[in-house]
Amino acid sequence: xxxxxxxxxxxxxxxxxxxxxxxxxxxxxxxxxxxxxxxxxxxxxxxxxxxxxxxxxxxxxxxxxxxxxxxxxxxxxxxxxxxxxxxxxxxxxxxxxxxxxxxxxxxxxxxxxxxxxxxxxxxxxxxxxxxxxxxxxxxxxxxxxxxxxxxxxxxxxxxxxxxxxxxxxxxxxxxxxxxxxxxxxxxxxxxxxxxxxxxxxxxxxxxxxxxxxxxxxxxxxxxxxxxxx
Length: 229
Known about the structure:
Blueprint: E1 6-10, H1 14-26, E2 30-34, H2 37-46, E3 51-55, H3 63-72, E4 81-86, H4 90-99, E5 103-107, H5 111-126, E6 136-138, E7 141-144, E8 149-152, E9 155-157, H6 161-172, E10 178-179, H7 180-188, H8 197-210, E11 217-220, E12 224-227
Parallel strand pairs: 1-2, 1-3, 3-4, 4-5
Antiparallel strand pairs: 6-7, 7-8, 8-9, 10-12, 11-12
């Protein structure tokens, strides 16, 4: 039997951290709680967990800086990351998604919703790796589903689990418009209640990483996106 996923909870408010720890344990996860950003970053880099729940306002190092460090480190770049943000931190929320966070939950949050988000992110991180599935190719862009690898002009491109699933979904449906609601449902696993700007932020970040092949992802105004081979 596979061990329960380890989840790093980085939250300086003791009551919130205790609630998260209790509920994650009830759901079968192994939470590891950190109250300082610098302590959490050192522990995560030394022994990467399966997922990080990250508050933005932290002593030592703030959440955005932790996100930067994790996404720049090849050892931790692919760890799924869910941010906790206050409702007034719209700019920080967008910056976090730009830096590579997979999702966010605004405070005050519903614990059940947070657990559903965590499970959805973990499912996405472990999905889409079908052995023997051939590469998807468009120009110099090559996506290898079995190896979970992407190359542009024969150079490997580092993508988060969500970015990989988003690109794979678009490439598999090349030429067809994919609405934002469809992408939220098929890639993120959410049926409703999620800000569609989450999709726009991930597409913007994905385009930046694809460099010379970025124009293959077309914006269809008022609808969504279409991939061109």
